[in-house]
What does this fold into?
Amino acid sequence: MDTNDIPSHIGLHGNPDGREPLDDEAGATAGLLPPVRRGRGRRPTAQVRQDILSAAGRLLLAEGMSGFTIERVAALAGASKMSIYKWWPSRGALALDGYFTTVESALAFPDSGDIEANLSTQLAAFVRLVRDTSAGRVIAELIGQAQTDSALAAAYSEKYSSPRRALAVQALERAQARGQIRTDIDPEVVVDQLWGACYHRLLLPDQPLTDEFAQALVHNLLHGVAVGSNRRARRPSTPGAGASAAG
It folds into this structure.
């Protein structure tokens, strides 16, 4: 793949900024990451919050949940633990917010008016992010821990999965309004068919997660796999969609 497609703040299987670890002169982060550089004077509240999110994302992508603590994020951000707990009720909530803030630009949904092109572009971006950067290891770890950590599971749904699904559903609904997708199709199921398949290969890697796989998913879904698939078939009942995040 073209590594230029990956935002510069997400390193390739390493530190999120793509650099070798630098020593923290204060020793607060065990010599892994440099703290946020602060100017003179008191920072505005919005800047403190952004510095915390930036530090959380950097630490999470560098070390995963095993090295992610409120204390280390506070040290990196030059903020107090009290400030962190004012905005985030738990370690998991902060981790998810930090992760999403860091990867958000790489997972933007394009809206060119061509649903096939839009889905292909976004799904390929997601595949490259989780395959070629430390983001894949981190999200797999978060999903795994969420199975036994109810607070983390709630944070994952609130901070990441549900918002990502909503973006994908909205894109599909716009395509339905444009007449590009049948109106009797449930967008929630389409989300699971596309991104759910990618998460399956990420978490159970018996088959590779490739650009070609992502492209085939979109093509097969929109053009069908059955002989004579252009015929309108009776839609099966779908009592409940899954919980795959869209990217």
About this structure: Confidence is low (pLDDT under 50) at residues 1-6, 14-31, 233-239.
